[in-house]
């Protein structure tokens, strides 16, 4: 798996957070930084189970976190808060103030999924999805980390040929709060000919590029030491600035090999020879598209974790899948994406790399033992539900030294 690499003597933390203190003792940072593994042994985690399969998968991931913590000798204290449709039903808003406050005061946040048919026709401000956008904005998370790892046990789930897919291990670092999705001016209007137009602005400031570049270099340093910056610098001014700044930040990371690629080529290379990539950094819109493309190389939505981190170091960790209302409440959900999100929480949110590795190893062992939920099932393996899959991961964790 992507994360199963040689551990450097110091653990990287994108967080710079200390354990157990909440907001009062949290150091604020302006850039990502190294810190030594914490020796303090308690952390506060906010759980946001949300809707649909969210509560089922978060319950399993919570247990995995607890066991990994106790194996490593630290305690995780959990606080469960309302979000999404569940919050709408209970208190009438998709992101209650108390939920955001609790999240801000914790050391990391684990989210299940939000949404469902019931709220589909609500007004925009009363949609579960509005809660998701609001918590990302409220936490100031500007970097989205999306690993796409083809596990040997699941290589046949990829739509690519086995020899192309096997061994793929990519991390896409996407800028999340700038670029064309937020740039102004935007809107509708009329052109010189009186024709209706729609327009948006791709806009990046140096500070926005520098901070995402630093996150990406830190991530690349912790992985295979290769960073590919994807842009459209042959056409777009915002991309020209992007390339200039990423190249400038590279001087702070002489141990990371930087390359640049145009986005059209990157889209092609991802399906032609995905193994050439280690870590990719790109803007909001390119990252939106490329991270979906990269993750689908793995072929299984129920396996894919993600992390969103910001300058405060506080991170939001969640599977990339939605609330899967079609299978909610049926014990059919694959909990591994959320369990692997929990591993990212330990690694990138708290800087607890060895605990993260425990969870990753337990997932690998469970798959090696042939257990599969319906979404990743193939003949000859053992079909299990969400709970049993969780129990098998816990068993594997428990048996570790
Ligand atoms: N971050 C989020 O919370 C998030 C992300 C995407 C969609 N959503 C919301 O989720 C709801 C459903 O959206 P959708 O159907 O487009 O996407 P989805 O990801 O919920 O489901 C797509 C398909 O994948 C399956 N699937 C998803 N996760 C799975 C898992 N862990 N195990 C097994 N199968 C799984 C589902 O059964 C479904 O067939 C919508 O309300 C949408 O807005 C939320």
Q: Would you kindly provide a written description of the structure presented here, covering whatever features stand out?
A:
Strand 10, helix 7 (237-249) and strand 11 form a beta-alpha-beta unit. The radius of gyration is 21 Å and the shape is globular. The chain is α/β, with parallel strands linked by helices and 401 residues long. It folds into two domains: 1-140 and 312-401, Isopropylmalate Dehydrogenase; 142-300, Isopropylmalate Dehydrogenase (3-Layer(aba) Sandwich), CATH 3.40.718.10. It has helices at 54-72, 85-91, 97-104, 128-139, 162-165, 206-222, 237-249, 263-272, 284-296, 336-349, 353-368, 386-398; strands spanning 12-13, 33-34, 42-50, 75-80, 108-113, 141-149, 169-175, 187-190, 196-199, 226-231, 257-262, 279-282, 305-310, 315-319, 371-372, 382-383. Residues 1-13 and 15-39 have low confidence and may be disordered. Strands 4-3-5-14-13-6-7-12-10-11 form a ten-stranded mixed β-sheet, with helices on both faces. Helix 1 crosses helix 11 and helix 11 (353-368) crosses helix 12. Bound molecules: nicotinamide-adenine-dinucleotide (NAD).
